[in-house]
Every structure is written in structure tokens, then in C-alpha cells.
Queue: 2 jobs
Job 1
Amino acid sequence: MRRVSLWRSTPFRVAVAVMLAAILTFGAVTMIARQIIVARVQALQDERVQALFGVVESQADTSGIFGLEDAILALLRQEGTERAAILLSDQSGRVIGGNMPHAVLPDGWVDLPGTAIGSRVGAYRFFTGPVGPLRLSVGLSNDSVTAVRETTNRALAWAAVASALIALLLGYVVGGQVHARQMDFERTIAKVAAGDLGARIPVSSRQDDLDLLSEGINATLDRLKAMVEGMQQVTTDIAHDLRTPLNRLNLRLSAALERAPDPELEAALTEARALNETFSALLRIAQIEAGARKDRFRDLDLVEIAGNVRDIYQGVAEDAGMELTVDLPAAPVAVRGDRELLTQAVVNLVENAIRHCPTGTTVRIGVAAGPRPALWVADNGPGIPAAERQKVTSRFYRLDKSRTTEGSGLGLSLVKAVAELHGAKVELLDAGPGLMVRIRFS
Amino acid sequence: MRILLIEDDRETASYIANGLAEQGHVVDRLDDGRDGLFHATREDYDVAIVDRMLPGLDGLSLVKALRAAGSKVPLLFLTAIGGVDDRVEGLEAGADDYLTKPFSFAELSARVGALSRRPPVQAEKTVLRVLDLEMDLIRRMVKRDGQVIDLLPKEFTLLEVLMRNEGRIVTRTMLLERVWDLHFDPKTSVVETHVSRLRAKIDRPFDTALIHTVKNAGYSLHAPR
């Protein structure tokens, strides 16, 4: 089964997605808050500038132009000459008062760097307006606002980084826990698929939704196990109930024949044996389909199996007037499986070919290497019509023309059962001319 | 030979016991697993035939217990189940051979014969000899009447099985299992084909035939009687 790493698993991604959404929301909200804070602080600062302007302006009303200088000086003393920058100029721009060098400022609000108004640091925010015939610019250092802005920016940045890290960490932890439980599911199901019907998903005492799901799956597996064991028991019972009388029949016929040879009895014994063979083959197919041998799988070489069958059947083919050859790659082709079953499958295919093809046919056993290795048997005989190829693998199916030949028709269905047990597919192809039956492993 | 038969189906047991008795063996019959185990450990038998499904103690457990008790008696397992797993289970439990019901008496007799070890302790032979046929197991060489005969590997194994069971009947099924490791019955005449080819090499060029066909049973290699 494919394994998905923690980083790509759903619980981790969901956890991280939720965390990121939370961070983004937090980020957006905090940025809005920051905007509000900074705007408010700025507004407060501006109110202050405006208030100072108002003080000087009202002084002009009460004590006239000459009182302005005193007012400005008083203000500067109050605020500090570093913090405050005041400029009183006449219409032509000539400096009359204040602590700033000559500068021309537009009316209203304006931000200026300290360097533009004499060697100062930081930034200043000015309000400029007319006072009588003169122009007054009042400015305060905006450093505090700048400081607030920078501090909140920095705080936000740190918060974002920290949240991201916490999100990943929590995602990892939470995701990991859920992932671990998912792995329990995967492991158990893999075991069952491999044949261990007793495997169950562990259930915690929490009784949460995953536990409920586990219990549901476990109950299903219980039913599956009961069904399979029931089937196996039925097969065993049938085997015993049918085989014992069959055995006695064989023994009695053999005994009778030994006492007095009789062609009728001989024919009867032949039929009894055929009955037994058919029964055995059916039983075998049923057992293979139930996955009986999966835990006995070993590493095998398909080339060796093909060669072995060829050695066994070469003589038989020659006696039947046919040729049996092999088409094998130079290097071993490894699969995991049951040697006996695969050998039997190839033997069935070769026997089918020998039985159904006329003399002079060439039968080939082959192995194809690659990511999907294959084991095939091909002949250049009459082949099977395309329409019948699908039906041929069902039990007891015989092509019309081969109804009179020997065999019970179970050969191909056994091949199919063996292939399925190995996770392989049986393909019937036109060998142009002739038939190729291919077992393709995945 | 002294044979212990543990089989609960009366008809089958009678048939087997009578057949073996006719061949000159002494057969002790039991129909319960526990009794069978008791007898097997108390007495000395040349071969034991045990059915898998028994009352009292099932065949598989019986075999395991017998082996655990140190008994080395050659043991043939009989079963009606004939499952793909059962043979391996039986052999792993300690049985020496395995036969699925239904079987012909000839098959049973041949296997019992093959299982018996006479003389009791046989030193590992390196050369097998029947009449003028000689097989060197170390050098993997076969000679008859002094002439070297060229055999393919499987032909060699086939001849070896026949020679090791000199005088006894070896059935088709036994040959399929021991020479080609095939545990099912092929439809075509695999064994016949290979035996006839072997005959062509080691019998036909010479005066006396050593490989004999036993009707409805199998083959036997021996000097003419």
C-alpha cells in the first residue's frame, strides 16, 4: 500500500490551513488596530500642534504683533527647542521670530525632515497659517508617532513569525496524532488484504469519531472473517463428505477389477477417477480464490519456472507432433509468489495448447521482464475467436469445437485464480495467428 | 512389516488393512487418535498410516506429539481435505509422505513400500547397482554393461528414484512429486513420455529390460524375476 508522509497527510494540512487562516485573521485585525493606533497618536500630536498654533494666534489678538515674540519664546521654553520648531515670517518670507532658519512652508499640514529646517534629527510635522499679516508655522517632532509606528510594526512582525512557527508545530503535533491513528487504519487494512483476517484496528477509550469508525470497520472485518471461515468450513465439510464415498467407490471398483477384469468396471473406474479429478480441481480453485496460500509466498524467478515446464513438456509436445520452445530474457525475472501454483498455471496453459492445436504447431513459453513482468504461453494454432475470449476463463466453459476433447474445462479458470492470487491479470491475445495467454504481474 | 493404521472410517480401514495383510504385512488397526498415539509410542512399527481427521486427537496433533516424543517411525498421512496448505502442514508437523483420498490401493501400497526402511539403518550409498546398471551419485554418471549412458538432469533423477526403490512400485504421482516437484495430476502423459525416453536410453540397446510397467499402478525397476 502506498504510504503518505505526515507532511502530505490531511490532518496536518488541515491543521496548518486552520492555523494559517487564524494567523491571517490575526494579522489583518492587528494591522487595522495598528492603523487606528497610529492614526490616533498622530491625531493627538496634530491636536497639540494645532493647540500651540492657537495659543500664539490668540496672543496676537490680545497683545499685538510684538507680543508674539514673547509668546513664541514662552512656547519654546515650554516645549523645548528641540521638540518644537516655530517660524514666524512676514509675507515676503523674511524670518521675524521662532527657532528655525529661513524656510518657506505651504499652508496647512506638512511633514518635513529635520535636515530641511536646520540640522535636526527625525521628522517634524508643521501647521502653517496666517496670523494677522504674518505667517506662522508651528511644528513638533513627530518622533513619538514614528516610534509608535515602528514599534507596532516590529511587534506585528515578531507575532507573525511566532504564530507561523507555532502553527507549524501545532500542525505537526496535532496532525501527527491524527496521522498516527490513520496509520493504525492503514496497517490493519493492509494486514487484512494480505490475508490476516484476524487483524483489527485498535480502539482507544476516548470513544471519539475515529473510534466509532474503527469499531464499524472492525465489526465489518469480524463479519468478513466469519464468512470466509464459514466458507472454508463448508469447503472442508464438502471435501470430507464427498471424498470419503468417492474414495470408497474407487477402492471397491479397484478391488472388483483385481478379482475379475471387466471392461464395464474399468470404464466405471475411469469415470470415478475423472469425477475425483474434477472435484479436486474445483476445490483447488476455490481454495486459491480464498487466498489460501498468500502467506507462503517466496521470491521466485519466472525464467526458471518457464524453463522447468519446458524441460518437463518438451518430450510430450514432440510425441504429439509439436514443437515446444522458450523465449526467455538472459537475466532472472523476480516476482513474489507460489512456485507450485505458478508452475501449475503454466502447465495448464501448455497442456491446453498441446491438446487443442493440430500437429505441426509451435508452442512457445515466454517471460517478459520490466516493471510489469509477464509469463506467457503462445501457439500458432487456430486461436480463439475474439468474441469467446472473455468467456473462456469462466468455469467449465468449452469452445464448441473442443467439447469432445479430454479435460474438464477448468484449466483456464485455475490459471485465472492463480493470477488473481498473485495480483496479476490474465490476458488473452491474438498471436496472429494463434492464441497467446499472458499472465501480467503488477 | 508391522504397520500401524489409525483410521476412523471403518470401510476404508478394512480395505487398507485387508489389502496390506494380503501382501504379507501385519496390521494393527485403531480408530481413535489418543489410542493411536498411545500405541505408536509403546510399540515398534515399520510404518504408521494416520488419517488426518480422527476422534479423540486429530491427526496433525498426533503426528506432532509423536515426533515430540522422539518417535522416528516413517509416517504416511491420509486426508480427505487435500487442501493446498494441508500437505505442507502435514509434512511440517513431521509426516514423511501424504496421500489424498480418494486413492488407489496401489498408490498406498507403493508409498508404504517406499517409506519402509529395510535394513533399518542404511549408510548413504554413493553407487546404486541393479544387475549391470550402475549409477554413480557423486559423479552423476550412469553406466550399463560398462558403457556410459548420457542422461539429461531430469532423466537422471527419474532413474535415481526408480533405482532407490528397486523392486518396489513407484506410482506416477510419486514420480511427478519427486522428479519434477509437481503436486497435481497433469492431464497429459508427462510421466509416460519421460519413462519411454529413459527406456530408449537404458533398456532398448541392451538385452534385458529393467524398467517394468505395473498395470494401473506405476513403474518398477528390477532385474527380471
Job 2
Amino acid sequence: MYWCAALAAYVLLVRLYFDDRVHVRDKPLTWLDWTGLASIVLTVAGVGAAVVQASRARSAASAASEAVDRTLDALARADLLVELQALRQVEHDIDRRVGATDWEGTGGLLRTWRDTGARVCTALAQADSTDALIELIEGSRLTASLTTVKLTSAQGGGDLIALTKKFRTEVALVGNHLSTRLSELRIDPGGTDV
Amino acid sequence: MSEDRLHVLIDRLIATTTTNKVKWVEKRSGVAFELTTDSGRRVMIDSRDDDGDPPYDLYIFDGNGKSLTTVLWSTDVTQASVPLDHKLHRLYKLAEDAALGISSEIDDLLNELPEADDIPF
């Protein structure tokens, strides 16, 4: 429809250009002239409407994209929250297991700390690779790995408290930072309170 | 213990395992393998994460069960980084094969399977 109106407007302009009549008011306008004028008005209105529609479509697409980003971000933060809570659980359990001289349980917690810590570090690095917590956790993961060796070497016959002392110390250091990070995530896991 | 001596030790373990001169037994549900010498000393090669994969560590115990030394995988990740890691990896696989009889089982399986009649070309 807009193309037809534009064509009619073009025809009118050509007629006016090649016509001897310079002053349109001197001669009565024919029905063809009126049609052309109406076409010009319609064309301008149509172009304006198209511009407005395009602008709205861009806004809608942009809004949809932002909504998807917010949802993904919220999901990632929820996953991180779960993993951080898992680390806190290890921090809570390790002293109990060591105190009970539970060698097998302690070994399991060491593995859990390593595996969960790896996932946490990956998630933190995606948000901010310079996050200080990453270095702390990576250090404690290495300590966990070496502590596993110590436990295996002791064959259940050593002092479990002494063997795990360094690891438990590093876990406590990480735990201090975890408290703060968990609070931040709970307050703003994508914009709403948990 | 110097690294050279460690290499000598592991090389000897690899050689004697390959020629079936030592007997490895399965420990810790198949993620560690141990051999015992005539004097009662024990050598154990262990998958640190209990999953059969690296890192692998080598433990040496005296006749009373006391740990003498441990040869550690150089990192806490699966990738071998230094020559010692590669030797530990090889020793673990050889010990696993010897303890579980994997090669023998495969040989028996091959003997059981019928010959393939089809010639592809």
C-alpha cells in the first residue's frame, strides 16, 4: 500500500515538474492532482509509522534479550549458591570426622572439597577471574590433594588431627570468605530475596 | 631420596612387573595395587582420587608397616607434567594389568572369539 502511495506521489511530482503551471493556485486542481497530494500525505505517514514500528520491535527484542540474560545470570548465581553451601558443609563436617577418627569419612570430604572447589573456581572465574577467593580455594584444593596422600601413607595408623591440620586451617580461611559471599548471593541472586 | 634413585626404583619396578617377576595384588577396591617383597617391605601404587585415573602416587613401607617414602605425582591434576609422572602412570597400568590379569583375560577372549570370515577387500 505504501509503495502504491509512493508511486502516485512520484507521478504527481513529475507532472508538476514538467507542467507549465508554476502556480498551482492559478489553475484548478484535477482529481489526479488531489490523488497525488493525498498520496504524498499517506506516504509520509506510512514512513513515519514504519519507523515507529521498527523502533518498537528493536526495543522488544532488546528487552527479551535482557530478560534472557537476567534469567541465565540468576540460574548461574543459584548454582554457585548451592556449590558454596556444599563447601560450607565440608567445613562443618571435617572437624567432626577428624574428631571421630573417621579416616574414610575424612578422605571422602577431602575429595568433595577438591571437586566442589574446582566447580566453584570455574564459576567465580567466569564472573571475575581476579576474584581473590579463587586463589584461596585453589590453594586449599592442592592441600586437600596432598593431605589425601598423607592419609593413604599413614594407612590408618597416624594422627589424623595432625595430618589434616593444614587442610583444616585453609578450609577455615576459605570459610570466612564463603560467609560473606553467601550473604551477597542470598541478598541478590538475580534481583530478588531468597 | 634423590630423584635419580627414584627413577632407578621405578624403572626396576616396571621391568620386573613386565617380566612377571613380582606379584601385584589389588587393594582398596581396585584403585591401588601392592607388592610385598621377601623381607616384608611393601610397595603400593595408588590412584589418589580413588577413580583409577591420575594422579598416581607410589608408597614404600618397611616391614613394620611404617611409611618410608612417598613418590608423588607432580601436580594434583590428571595431566602428566614431568618424566616421573609418565613412569608412575606406566607402573600403575602395568600393576593393574598384573593384579587383575587383564591381558590374560583378553587373550582368553580372543581365543574364544571365532575368526572373522569376511575379507573387506
